[in-house]
Structure formats: C-alpha cells, structure tokens
Design goal:
The protein has about 280 residues and is of the alpha/beta class. The protein has helices spanning about 25-35, 45-60, 75-85, 95-105, 145-160, 175-180, 185-190, 210-220, 240, 245-260, 265, and strands at about 5, 35, 65-70, 90-95, 110-115, 130-135, 160-170, 225-230, 270-275. The protein has a seven-stranded mixed beta sheet with strand order 5-4-3-6-7-9-8, with helices on both faces. The longest helix is centred in the N-terminal third of the chain and has 15 residues, at about 45-60. The radius of gyration is 18 Å and the shape is globular. The chain starts with 5 loop residues before the first strand and ends with a strand.
C-alpha cells in the first residue's frame, strides 16, 4: 500500500508516528514528515489511473453551475481540476502540510475556497447546498466507527438530495499481495497482519474489506450507485504500466474502464470508489 503514496526523501521513518494517538496530530505528522500527497496521483502513469477513473465517474453527474465540496482534499488535485473546469469548489483539509501545498497551487480567477477543517464537523456549510461532495481521504484515517459515521452523516447533510457523494476506501485484502510484489518479498511471513483472518493492522491507514465498505455505507442510509475498482491492478502492474508508450497506456485505460465495475475486479484494487445518493 505504501507504493501508492510517495515517501518524502530524507524525512522521518513511518514507524516514528506509530505511538501518536491524537488523530489530528497523527495526520499532520504523516503528511508533513512522511508522505508527499501533492504528487500521489500524478507521479507516474500507474498512479494516475486512480485520478482518471475518479474524474471519469464524477463527470457523469456534474452539470453546468454545479457546486462541489472536497472534504479531505489533500493537496488539492481534484479541487484544482474541477475549478479549472469552471465549477465552484469549496475544499476542506486537516493536514497543515497539505493545506500549505494546496494554497500554493490555487490559480488566480478560480472559484475555489480552501479551509482547514475536519470531516467530522462541516458546520461551516449549510445543509443541502452542494451538488457533489467528495469524501476521498477521511475514511483512510478515521479509526473509530463513530467518527466515520459522523463524517458520512456530515457529507450527507451538506449534499443536495439529488446530489452525489463520492467515498474512497483502501482495500484490506489486496495489500499483502501488492506489498509482497512491490516492496517486501517476505511480507507474507513478516507483514503486520493476522495470520488467520488476514486482517491488516490499521497503520498508517485504516483498511476495509469490500463487505465492510458496503455495510458501512448501507447502514449510513446512502443509496449506492457505483462500486468501482478505482485503480484496479495498477499497483501490482506498476512497472509494466509505467513502461507503456502513450498508445499502449491509452488502451490499458480503456480496458481498465471496461473492467473497473465488474464484481470480480473489485477485490483486486487497492482503492475502491463508491458513488452514492445521500438518501432520505
């Protein structure tokens, strides 16, 4: 899984944040000292698959004049993309390093507002006020079920009844394979997971099985429209994908878009995207 986020050169080891219990402090340290969020979705062709897939699905529901709220916006890749397309965008991000990186990338004339805040408290925004709400990062970090429920409830509250919410998760079941292939050939022997249940340790992110993702959303009351393998096998095939020429990569993306909603592929993706109506 760590292949999906760029480590900062010369920065502290990820184990140094292991004992930080305060969520806000842990997230701030993670992005200030360990990971480079501003390049996570752009540093390679393989990394770009998740971004291109997410944008493709969001565009199905965007209409002229739409208002977007990007909660857990990271360094702003999605917010900036949609602001460049002429949409009105509000963004919320917790990590100070990401806020600073995001702020530097805002271009003059963009209809874009950035605020530092927490996904569990969107009280700065009125209810029923956004056409599209993105929750593409917070569920990676919220360990307590009640905090996740609160973040989802807040996203539902601010989303218009006919709007769409996008949720992203990191899949528990594929990580041992991607780690073994890309990082540590001995991961199956030495990795941090339960040897009987294959449950990963929730560090440095929170992991979910596909069934857990669906149950969490269904219990929250949203109406699921799409379940998408947003990066598919791109972390497993990273070297192959990054070695493709433009024509081959374009055809790979066509194949990925063809397969990414097939049930048999959902378990083979490190990241899962769910699009949903907010429900009653």
């Amino acid at each position: 899984m760590l292949r999906g986020i760029r480590l900062q050169e010369g920065k502290m080891d990820i184990q140094s944040i292991y004992g930080i219990e305060n969520e806000a402090e842990r997230v701030n340290t993670l992005y200030a000292q360990v990971f480079r969020e501003e390049t996570r979705l752009t540093w390679s062709q393989a990394a770009r698959v998740e971004f291109l897939t997410t944008v493709r699905y969001l565009e199905k529901y965007l209409r002229p004049g739409a208002k977007l709220l990007d909660v857990g916006a990271g360094a702003g890749e999605y917010s900036l993309h949609f602001a460049r397309q002429g949409y009105s965008v509000d963004a919320v991000e917790l990590a100070e390093a990401n806020v600073a990186a995001f702020q530097k990338r805002i271009e003059p004339g963009m209809d874009l507002r950035l605020r530092r805040g927490n996904a569990r408290d969107l009280s700065a925004y009125a209810g029923d006020s956004f056409d599209v709400v993105l929750l593409l990062g917070p569920l990676y970090h919220l360990e307590r079920a009640e905090d996740r429920a609160r973040a989802i409830a807040e996203a539902r509250r601010v989303c218009k009844k006919d709007g769409v919410i996008a949720f992203a998760f990191i899949s528990n079941d594929i990580v041992p394979l991607t780690e073994s292939v890309n990082c540590d050939p001995e991961y199956f022997q030495k990795g941090n997971y339960d040897r009987e249940t294959f449950r990963l340790e929730n560090f440095p992110f929170v992991f979910f099985t596909l069934d857990e993702m669906r149950a969490m959303l269904e219990e929250s009351g949203v109406e699921i429209l799409h379940a998408v393998a947003s990066d598919g096998p791109s972390e497993l095939l990273e070297k192959r994908i990054n070695g493709m020429d433009q024509a081959c990569y374009a055809q790979y993306l066509r194949w990925h878009f063809y397969t990414c909603e097939k049930p048999e592929w959902l378990g083979c993706s490190n990241h899962l995207l769910f699009l949903a109506r907010p429900g009653k």
